[in-house]
Amino acid sequence: MKSLKDILYGVGLTAVSGPTTVMVNNICFDSRKVGLDDVFVAIKGTQVDGHRYIEKAVDSGAKSIVCEELPELMVNGVTYVEVQNGNSALAIMASNYYGNPSRNLKLIAVTGTNGKTTISSLLYQLFKKAGFKVGLLSTIRIKVDDTEYPTGHTTPDALTINKHLALMNEAGAEYCFMEVSSHGIHQKRTEGLVFAGAIFTNLSHDHLDYHKTFAEYRDTKKKLFDQLSQNAFALTNIDDKNGLVMLQNTKAKKYTYALKSYADYRAQILENQFNGQLLKIDDNELWSRLIGGFNAYNMLAIYATADLLGLEKLEILRLMSELENVEGRFQYYISKQKITAIVDYAHTPDALKNVLETISTLRTGNEKVITLVGCGGDRDKSKRPVMGHIATEFSNKVIFTSDNPRTESPATIIHEMEAGVEPQNAMKVLSIENREQAIKTACQLAVAEDIILVAGKGHETYQETNGVRIEFDDYKKVKEALAALGK
Ligand SMILES: CC(=O)N[C@H]1[C@@H](OP(=O)(O)OP(=O)(O)OC[C@H]2O[C@@H](n3ccc(=O)[nH]c3=O)[C@H](O)[C@@H]2O)O[C@H](CO)[C@@H](O)[C@@H]1O[C@H](C)C(=O)N[C@@H](C)C(=O)N[C@H](CCC(=O)O)C(=O)O
Ligand SMILES: Nc1ncnc2c1ncn2[C@@H]1O[C@H](COP(=O)(O)OP(=O)(O)OP(=O)(O)O)[C@@H](O)[C@H]1O
Ligand SMILES: N[C@H](CCC[C@H](N)C(=O)O)C(=O)O
Ligand SMILES: [Mg+2]
């Protein structure tokens, strides 16, 4: 139990009714999960207003309420606290409740449209190899040194973040690498965290359902840099046209990386093959198992970060050459008949284009590129025709199929992808709603040396339709389908 007063330290209160000396069991922002003596924080969400559930929270045992507007009906014996912003209060309260764990380690944020999971997971791998105890908060998993925890978000809610940071403190972790999504910043899930540094990867088309305009999406990402302290570093990719925007108002020490521009950290691609690429970084050569121009950026960001965190340059390069790609990121399988199947999490236009361009640089003859791709439901609809266009422009054959349809009609999503196909590419397209059937068809169409790209779901092991998740793993499915065909 902790006192409400201590938990509220640093939260600006606009009104208080009742004693703040009351003891609190847990902090809770969902009335359905409230227990005895909890403090319930009412959040104005995207679907409903949490203020509607204040009474229900009190009925379930909440002894204190944090909200943006005091309710008309206030129950005796319950403390009501009014704050300016519920999300912001929740984040600061979560940090206080868990003992402000971000202050006890070096927390590094990775933000941008693509590359967050790759960079944060590989930094985790690298610092582990260097002998440190390390934490990771990523789309795929949370790691408290060697212990793994599942996650449902790229950037979890503030309570989940701080709970795991506290576990990292207990485990003696010195570093934590975390992905910071634009939803996370906008919903203030990361407020109150003390970052030792932040990395910007790139900015391209995504989430325009949520942010409405590209400028708003960009400015949301920028807020992460605006909030850094002068002791932190801000590392940005200046080949991206928004790279310098991130540094405009930051107090942090500024560093840049680039392949094409003059920058503090520079890399050059010397050679590119299917099993790796040769990079030149800081006048030293590095063999990277991760291929493609986009991964040269990721590797450079990793190198720069490790350098800024004080690791020795040659040691960083040695450890980087041992790094393995992350699941579902250009994960490939070569079949008996030498058909190459690539599973990749490209779920944005830019990622899809990068992966297909990388594949095209690796082609040696007349092999076909067969791309299978869908778009997620209840997500940015404007990505769909663009991804339909890119897939058909850069492939010989394309199968449009379902990603996670969520609450949308799979057929409608596919039609929206088809709308982006140029007339001259229409002949390349097949549309098969059922993803398993689509994978089988791609495998039937492939002959020796062909390349099948299964895009969009990467590491995911499920497919979600109308709230129901079935087991689904692209890598397993494509391997099974090729084996069943004796290919
Ligand atoms: C659109 C979005 O981001 N929604 C997130 C948000 O939920 P919300 O605002 O919709 O919540 P709401 O349903 O309106 O409810 C408002 C409040 O009332 C409360 N409530 C509600 C009902 C009730 O009976 N009682 C009650 O107390 C809720 O607990 C909540 O506090 O806050 C929730 C708690 O933190 C999140 O779990 C939820 O993520 C949803 C599930 C989601 O799918 N988010 C995705 C889009 C997301 O965040 N993705 C990014 C990655 C994107 C990327 O990088 O590509 C991520 O960081 O994971
Ligand atoms: N630096 C990069 N630039 C452009 N595309 C990239 C980059 N790194 C990875 N990609 C592409 O984007 C896909 C997703 O990569 P990754 O999972 O690292 O991104 P993310 O930012 O974590 O995505 P999410 O927002 O879903 O968490 C990869 O499968 C690859 O196709
Ligand atoms: N972080 C992204 C992941 C998209 C992955 C794709 N497979 C989908 O389900 O749309 C999002 O939540 O928008
Ligand atoms: Mg991610």
Automatic annotation (TrEMBL):
EC top class, as a word: ligase
Protein EC: 6.3.2.13
Domain of life: Bacteria
GO MF term set: ATP binding; magnesium ion binding; UDP-N-acetylmuramoylalanyl-D-glutamate-2,6-diaminopimelate ligase activity
Subcellular location: Cytoplasm
Positions bearing N6-carboxylysine: K221
Keyword annotations: ATP-binding, Cell cycle, Cell division, Cell shape, Cell wall biogenesis/degradation, Cytoplasm, Ligase, Magnesium, Nucleotide-binding, Peptidoglycan synthesis
UniProt cofactor(s): Mg(2+)
Post-translational modification: Carboxylation is probably crucial for Mg(2+) binding and, consequently, for the gamma-phosphate positioning of ATP.
Pathway terms, separated by semicolons: Cell wall biogenesis; peptidoglycan biosynthesis
Record bears the keyword Nucleotide-binding: yes
Catalytic activity from the UniProt record: UDP-N-acetyl-alpha-D-muramoyl-L-alanyl-D-glutamate + meso-2,6-diaminopimelate + ATP = UDP-N-acetyl-alpha-D-muramoyl-L-alanyl-gamma-D-glutamyl-meso-2,6-diaminopimelate + ADP + phosphate + H(+)
Gene Ontology CC annotations of this record: cytoplasm
Binding positions (meso-2,6-diaminopimelate): R379, D403, N404, P405, R406, G456, E460
Motif placement: Meso-diaminopimelate recognition motif: 403-406
Pfam families in alphabetical order: Mur_ligase, Mur_ligase_C, Mur_ligase_M
Domain Mur ligase central: 110-305
All copies of domain Mur ligase C-terminal, residue ranges: 328-458
Cited InterPro entries: Mur-like_cat_sf, Mur_ligase_C, Mur_ligase_C_dom_sf, Mur_ligase_cen, Mur_ligase_N, MurE/MurF_N, UDP-N-AcMur-Glu-dNH2Pim_ligase
Domain Mur ligase N-terminal catalytic: 25-98
Entry's family note: Belongs to the MurCDEF family. MurE subfamily.
Function: Catalyzes the addition of meso-diaminopimelic acid to the nucleotide precursor UDP-N-acetylmuramoyl-L-alanyl-D-glutamate (UMAG) in the biosynthesis of bacterial cell-wall peptidoglycan.
Protein's UniProt name: UDP-N-acetylmuramoyl-L-alanyl-D-glutamate--2,6-diaminopimelate ligase
Organism from which the protein derives: Cerina litoralis
